[in-house]
Amino acid sequence: MSTASTGHPSPAAASGAPLPRTRSGPSASAGRRVRFGVVGAGFIATWFARAVAAEPAAEIVAVASARPERAAAFAAEHGVPHAHPTLEAMLAEHGPDRAAPIDVIYIGSPNSLHAAQAIAALEAGYGVLVEKPFALTPAQARAMAATAERTGGFLMEAWQTAFEPGAAAIRAALPRLGEPRRATFVREQFSSRMSAYRAGDLPPAFDPALGGGSLMDLGIYPVSLAIHLFGPPDRVTATAQLLDSGVDSHGTVTLSYDTGERVGLEVACLHSKTSANALGSQISGESRAILLDHCQWPEHISLITAPGSPEESREDLSVTRSGEVMGPLLAEVCRLVSAGARGSELHPVSASVAAIEVLSEARAQIGVHFPDDDADA
Ligand SMILES: NC(=O)c1ccc[n+]([C@@H]2O[C@H](COP(=O)([O-])OP(=O)(O)OC[C@H]3O[C@@H](n4cnc5c(N)ncnc54)[C@H](OP(=O)(O)O)[C@@H]3O)[C@@H](O)[C@H]2O)c1
User: Fold this and answer.
1) Same domain, yes or no: 156 and 169
2) Per-residue pLDDT, 10
3) Where is the segment annotated Disordered (predicted)?
4) Of 320, 336, 356, which residue sits at a domain end?
């Protein structure tokens, strides 16, 4: 793996310092709401709409989904003024000179559509907030980054963790560990779609043609957290159990850091869509460890000194989460877009690309193949 691009959050970004500005395309001006167009009307689009309803700096202008009736129902439920049968129709209708302009297209469609839809929106002059995983393949991820660079448009992956108060607490505590030697990040949750799969359906979450599987759906969280905190690894080692559909149900990705600032660190990323989790995550130094309850939304966090010894002591670093699940991410996107930024320094596009490089290497090792991989060959 390349170590050229670390993806490390800079202190300047964490403090809200100025970011590179958009060269072209619509950008929200200070004092008015950031206008979103939503792609998809499913589970995550609903979470997004709830966050927008609670965020004074945001509004949804339009929605497009695969089935026009779903888009219309979503529009009616969330008070969205425009519903479109396709993304293309939405892009044609909401440019900066039209009656109902959109600043940012939020992409909440199945994984396999993220890259093409993000590129189409950027090419049409819109900013893009795209759900995780950023793309299916490294070539797609790099093409998205290159398109944003060329068009000057805003581009960011909607990986929420970076903007969580718990992640800020972990970043602040990390220097107190000394050299981190091992981390174990766990994202494990029995899938609500498993019963449909077992009954003979093929939901997107388990469909290789749509970029499904545990690694892409849940493994992305521990891998992204590792890259966020430690940068891209030098080596990736993956094992998994596969379903008959060809995607993985659960597995482990080990990230090894052999060179540079994090030399000697190993991060075990455990992910599963077929088991429940009662185990937290942990980052260990030589005599201290940080425990976190959840590696997507860390809330109960503690710093343990001399674990297992008579001198053991525990410092509570827990944070309180409140409001809508996507609230912290959305507030930051509104701040960035209103400031004319082209992306987030706290969760830069380079980190999203690095995560897809790791997932792609892991998929190659466990034998999960997507049709989109053939286009990369
Ligand atoms: N950040 C998070 O915490 C989080 C959580 C869950 C999911 N996600 C991500 O969000 C994405 C969607 O997941 P989900 O659980 O919301 O899936 P979902 O409930 O199946 O919803 C997907 C939506 O995409 C729509 N769609 C399909 N093809 C489309 C097309 N060509 N153009 C426009 N819309 C299209 C579907 O349309 P119809 O309804 O009209 O058929 C559906 O409304 C995935 O990438 C997933 O990884 C993120």
Assistant:
1) no
2) 34
3) 1-30
4) 320
Q: Is 139 among the domain residues? A: yes
| Residue 273 annotated among the catalytic residues of the structure | no
Catalytic residue among 84, 114, 132, 250: 132
SS3 221: helix
Distances (CA, A) of 357 to 223, 257, 319: 10, 15, 32
The best mutation among 38, 39, 44, 67 to test binding of ligand 1, ranked by most ligand atoms within 8 Å of the C-beta, falls on 44
- Tell me, in angstroms, the distance from the centre of ligand 1 to residue 121's CA: 17
pLDDT at 3 over 90: no
Query: Tens of pLDDT along 96-124?
Result: 999 999 999 999 999 999 999 999 999 99
| Dihedral sign of CA atoms 245, 250, 251, 257 in order | positive
Decide: 109 in ligand 1 pocket, CB within 6 A: yes
111 lines ligand 1 (CB under 6 A): yes
pLDDT digits (tens, 9 = 90+) for 139-180: 999 999 999 999 999 999 999 999 999 999 999 999 999 999
Q: Give the C-alpha separation, 9 to 344, whole Å.
A: 9
Closest CA to 109 of 129, 80, 83: 129
Mutate to test the pocket of ligand 1, among 47, 48, 78, 109 (most ligand atoms within 8 A of CB): 109
DSSP state of 348: -
Quick one: pLDDT band at residue 375, thresholds 50, 70, 90? confident
pLDDT above 70 coverage of the chain, percent: 92
Pair (104, 183) in one structural domain? no
- Residue 253 alpha carbon to ligand 1 centre in Å: 25
